[in-house]
């Protein structure tokens, strides 16, 4: 019985499909970014992700398994030398699919597939730690605590407001003195 044995055959026989995905995986590992259709990229993801996970442990067994899938010594060497150490701390999700629109000839949906840690432009800024705010404690931090029978008088904002116009008045004459002479003064 074929219970839930479904995946995208990509319109190819088994041998052709395996060879194509192997070649695409080699290209992705060597160039770190390839352009292909979305369907092929999704199928390629299931080939590349386990290989990158294996590349974290540089053992003979892992290299042999990678070579059996890729069939290229250069790609295996590149996978274990540069890709494996760079993704050692990442739990998964080593590839990214960025859709680029439709192909002109047959209107196939195209994308750019890349290894996540090798893109210098997209996603390299450190993540900012967000603090969560609760509705309950929103206004209590800035409001002064008022005890029974006492009155709170805030004079600091009023004093700052009085100082601001005085500071602006002091700066204005200094600006006028440093200005270049007008055309009438130049003629005299």
Explain what the structure shows.
There is one protein chain. The chain is mainly alpha-helical. The chain has a domain at 14-118: 50s Ribosomal Protein L17, Chain: A (Alpha-Beta Complex). Helix content is 47%, strand content 11%. The protein has 6 helices and 3 strands; from the N terminus they run H-E-H-H-H-E-E-H-H. It has a 3-stranded antiparallel beta sheet. Helix 1 (14-31) crosses helix 2 (38-54), helix 1 crosses helix 4 and helix 2 (38-54) crosses helix 4 (73-86). The radius of gyration is 32 Å and the shape is extended.
Offer a concise description of the structure.
By secondary structure, the chain is mainly alpha-helical. Helices cover 47% and strands 11% of the residues. It has helices spanning 14-31, 38-54, 60-70, 73-86, 156-178, 183-187, and strands spanning 33-37, 95-102, 109-115.
